[in-house]
Amino acid sequence: MTANRAPWLVLVIRIPAEPSRHRVAVWRELRKAGALSLGQGVWAVPALPAFTVAVDRVVELVGRADGEATILAAAGRSTADAERLEGLFNAARRDDWIEFLSDCGKFEAELAKEIRIKKLTLAELEEEEQSVERLRRWHRDLTARDVFGTPEAAEATARLKECVAACEDYAERVFRALHENPS
Questions:
Q1: What's the pTM value of the predicted model, to 2 decimals?
Q2: What is the Cα–Cα distance from 41 to 64, expressed in whole angstroms?
Q3: Could you report the average pLDDT of every consecutive run of 10 residues in the chain (183 residues)?
Q4: Which strands make up the sheet holding 42-46, listed edge to edge?
Q5: 75 near 6, Cβ under 8 Å?
Q6: What end-to-end distance do the CA atoms of the chain give, in Å?
């Protein structure tokens, strides 16, 4: 990617130290958006529509805190600079996907345990279905942030499908157990 093909928004944020809840709210919003921290109070996101709402929300939160938000349009001065920034952003997305994949593994292990101990109840099924929905929402959010398409995204999509299938299998087992003849 060339320097002039990779526009970025650089957010320079200044917020009073107290109350700290304002700094925390801004930090959470930036993390939720997938913004890349470049240093204290300096963040970057690709200048794409996927990040517009989050940037606007950050500016609003900073304003409520009587702080200052300066948004700069930027690109790498050289191709190497642009590639380095994109690489940092992609590394953060890879970390997100790795965490997601880990949670998929935990979900599958949980289902396997419930099947092994024959905990086939509607209450447990509802809990597992909520876990799948959380994974789906998380996958959707990560996909929206992964604007350069890291390789881990495809693996995560496949793993999510496996989790959904495993949950459907668990649901069938629960319903079979509930309808078995007690004799």
A1: 0.86
A2: 16
A3: 67 94 94 94 94 95 95 92 93 97 98 95 96 98 94 97 98 94 60
A4: 36-39, 42-46, 8-14, 68-74
A5: yes
A6: 68
